[in-house]
# Entry
Amino acid sequence: MTEITGAAAPERTLWSDVWYQFRHHRGAVAGVIILGIIVLAILIGPWLHGVDPQHIDIRARNAQPSLAHPMGTDNIGRDIFAQVLQGGRVSLSVGVTAMLLSLLLGTLVGVLAGFFRRLDGVLMRLTDLFLALPLLPLLLVIIMLFRDTLRGLFGPETGIFLLIVFIIGITSWMQTARIVRGDVLTLKEQEFVLAARSIGTPSHRIILRHVLPNILSPIMVSATLGVANAIITESALSFLGLGFPSDFPTWGRLLFDGANFMMLNPARVIWPGLAISLTVLSINFIGDGLRDALDPRIRGR
Amino acid sequence: MLTYTLRRLFFAIPTLLVISFLIFALLDLSPGDPTSNLPLTIPPEVREQIRQSFGLGEPFMVRYLKWLHQFSINEPLNVLEQMTGWTIGDGGRMRVISWQTRSPVVDLIAERLPQTLWVVGLSYLLGILIAVPIGVLSAWKQYSWFDQFGTFFAMVGYSVPTFFTGLVFIMIFSVHLGWLPMIYDTNLKVTDLASFWLQVKQMAMPVMVLALYNAGQISRFMRASMLDNLNQDYVRTARAKGMGESKVLLVHVLRNSLIPVVTVIAIGVPQIFGGAIITEQIFRVNGLGQLLISGIQGTDIPLVQTLTFIFAILIVLFNLIADLLYGILDPRIRYD
Amino acid sequence: MISRGIFLGAAAASALCANAALAERGSDGQLNILYWQAVSTMNPYLSNGTKDIEGASLVLEPLARFDPEGNLVPYLVDEIPTRENGGISEDLTSITWVLSEGLLWSDGSPVTAEDVVFTWQYCTDPAGGCSQASNFAGIETVEALDARTVKVTFEKPTPYPYGAFVSVEAPVLQKAQFADCLGAKAAECTEANFNPIGTGPFVVTEFKANDVITLAANPNYRDAAKPAFANVVLKGGGDAASAARSVLETGEFDYAWNPQVEPEILAQMEAAGKGEILAAFGSLVERIHVNQTDPNPALGAERSTVGHPHPFLSDPQVVKALSLAIDREILVETGYGAGGRVTCNLIPAPEINASTNNDWCKAQDMEEAARLLDEAGWVKGGDGIRAKDGVRMSLLFQTSTSSVRQAAQALIKQWWGELGVEAELRQIDGSVFFGGDPGSPDTMQKFYADMEEFANEFSGTDPEAYLGDWVCSGIPSPETQWQGSNFSRFCEPEYDALFVELGRTAGAEARAAIIIKLNDMIVNSGAFIPLVHRGRISVKSNTLGGVDLNPWDSELWNAADWYRVKS
# Structure
């Protein structure tokens, strides 16, 4: 993933090439614009809207959208627009960070297992183990062991944030690892890798220069699905009392809490649902664009 | 290939033993309690007595070994007896007993397997059948309107959680139109056309919800993998040789593209047996997913341990199958 | 012969008396009942929760049970034993029940006193893990005087002897069926636990644990005209909101248990016109327990133990202020609707035991609350939070996960915030919070927080055992493995003495006077903030008649009288 963050550096010709290609990918540009608008909205929106998402206006319960409450209010009179904006900060940061962690773990395990036969058995049995562990008891144990320590070290919000990212990260890397391993197994036997090996290229160079660029597409798919997955998992965690405190809105949680109020106040589900879908869609298009831009066979076509 | 398979199967035994021990330790460490659903009016002494009656007073290792013995020796013998009608031993074997229902866990699983296989299995199959053509066509006609629509459909299908799609479906098809029942009847036996039609009707919503989710995921992997292969040199060569486009696509590209997708599909199969917890809850399908979640909520350790361990066996098994399929789909991969 | 119990039961639903009398057994087809918590066993003595006990009440019956007003009504006997009729001995050490004549089990065999004695043996076997053992506590022996007479002898004078064999919690089992299921073998009798033979209106025909139970009318039921339904399907699983929807909106089911969802959602479903919401009030109170000890993590193993009083919540005046800041009307309106009402008591019912001395809490009074805190020396600092001697009024408020509690917590946090008290909210999974695992920091007993919200009630109508939770010796501590039901760590020698006196007092009036005193002591102690008196709620289809929601016993207590309304 380090290569992607470096993608914008203009001084290297390879990367300026990539950047050129990326700029001319319509989907990717649209994705960047939509994601940019969402990020901008959740960054400056609360400041413009000026309503505290936790403030309860008990006289305005289940209010329909109005000028004061552009998306209406929930069943105890909290402003939904403010909650969606506030929730976006949490959901986006949890989604992206947890996805990165899971991707990093998954790619690392997958590449190592696929490339070094000696590690394959051990790492794949480890993957089996993680796939087999029952999630909910695992979460309860992790929370029991680490919550108070992290809360003491980083305060309630950052502590829980780290815990959630960690939990989602370490429970969702297995699929990526299996897929990456499968691809690496195929790649390893292809001519260009064999050629590189025959001229004595060290393994880490083969992995970085030849293997990684060629497995980008499953990684990109995993990344986009991973963001959606992390956002939804976070809401399930909060619902189980394992996530953020209940007065701390997130998109997934807003959608979950609002589901039963769907007929009474459709705004409660439409906006958070739309926010999640748009985010995932735009990240998907950005991923497509990046993949195309980084693929040497397409570049320049 | 055969020695590889045998070696993998042999190594699966210690792996599974370690997994079963870790699951047991995890469940033991987990902070739930089997008496947590009892009314608060039940005093602590009585709760303690209930815990003792579950054998929770015994040391950890004793409980683990007891379970292992019951699961790996007694239960298979029972199944054997039932299948063959033989009597082995004196019949006084301790079975794995669920704490919640005080009945054998294996019987509970057998009772729930049919509805889970029907609903979750069918939706998985349907998801694959939808996803593969969508993925192939999307890649072939990359950035066409079909691709854009497929992408949209897949990403929305995946990013909107099933608790929400399920509720929307109920609102439309049960409440407003009144076409489909919102509660799954597990007692329904298919005997004639009428009861078959009822079964189709009650399966329609849960299968749709799950298939949408599965298709969303698999179609993305399929498309990505196809795209990767379409740009490979061998495709250009094949086209240059004047091979028909459909033959290039279906014979060469599809076969190679299926490799990563097979992994995704194989990893997903054990999850069929895991049931779909949320969807089963919404429509009250009461399959294995609902059994697992009710066991976890009630800290029914023997039930959860047995269920998760069966999943573990399936996971190990299907990962082996996926590895063997690689070998078949891609002869270049050598395991020995 | 028609037993008086059934007669009374039918009389309670007087409007349908004529209708029901004309009916023929099994003439109304199938009844569909939905419990969103699925029934796991039909043996109430091995139950995991209320749902199992209620499901079993369709099949198994006690000697006597409570009606919706909380009065005891005879079921398998002709009259309730009292001191006046000689059923209870003068020294209060024994009670004698006489079974009605001609009672039959569903398999056709006669019900005898031996069955009753056996039930006691079954539940008191220590290896059996009987979950209703407290109903049989304090019993020295149960003996059969003749085929129809049972004498229960207590270890000491027991002014309230209606625990054993009374109410949904302690029905009679058939000796012949369960004779081999005593003690450790209880769990192996799957067949008997799933298909118990009973005296009730229905018998199990197929049992799928945690899923669906199919029952048929009991051919040997004592009233030849009942039950009106030939079959019952008791389905389980899912969530509360969709359970209500299946009755009120789609009409797939006739009755749904405990649809605990926000009142506006229920009201909107009810507007579809297919069914109605029922509510009845027992003793359930949604409350906040206030930790009297200091939960500060810095104390390590001494957290929340009696050696360390809470820095500010041990002052009753502070807690009174926090209680006054709560608008209970709003809590009812947002969370419970018809299923809740404002209360200021620990014991809100029955009427005779309910105190009226604490009504100051009924209306929110922010000014008075602020004044009380000012008076106690807590003044707002620069950050808007009150403080005294370097201690900030910042507290951790925990509860079990539930959408209704989550909203209540948010509201209360806002009101306290206006007062200058900061609250951090925490939700804990119910299986952990109520579980009592001494290894977990998140149990209600350990109480590693300043406040905790949940609901509690007492079984039956007598609150003695419930008040006994508050004595000093009930305080959970590391020495007792955190067992104990005095969650607030309330300890008042005067209270303990008065509680002992309650155990020696007979007569409803005299007991009520003491119960009210004990209730007031707890409410004014600063260890307890009552919030809402919660009713049982359920929803039923318009086509179902005869339902009389009972808050003191099983909701299905009079299922024999239910019938299909012909339009």
Q: What stands out?
A: DSSP finds twelve helices and no strands in chain A.
